[in-house]
Design goal:
The chain has one domain: Immunoglobulin-like (Sandwich), CATH 2.60.40. It is about 10% helix and about 60% strand. It is built from one helix and nine strands, in the order αβββββββββ. Strands 1, 3, 5, 6, 8 and 9 form a six-stranded mixed sheet that branches. It has a three-stranded antiparallel sheet with strand order 2-4-7, with no helix packed on it. The longest helix has 16 residues. Keywords: Signal.
Amino acid sequence: MKKIVITFLLFVSLLFSCSVSDDTPRSYFEFLPIESVQMPDTFTRYQTHNIDLFYNLPSTCHVLNDIYYAINENQRTVAIVSEVYTASDNCQEISTEAETSFAFRPTELGTYIFKFWQGEDELGEDHYNVVEIEVVE
């Protein structure tokens, strides 16, 4: 009887321990270069301003995920974060211009420096479109 119970438990444990799910990632994240920016020439302190970002989607498997936004004193570094879906078998290369925006509300007078990421060169060094904006009353 013990042999039957042990055999049954072993069979049940093998049955439930096998996984048929695929653990390969279905997507990953990638920075996309910002092609151009539309923003005011100056900011007014305590007023909200929209900053428009234009970028290209390189394939039908790329979608906007977020805007990377890092603050270091008066400097802001901005990049587009794309999610790339790898589970799709029908990804097609495209070059579709897309647009997104974010709101910026300066609280200090002076100059803010925006660094918009434009990609990497052959050596892997980052390149930025650097824009300095004066904040007035």
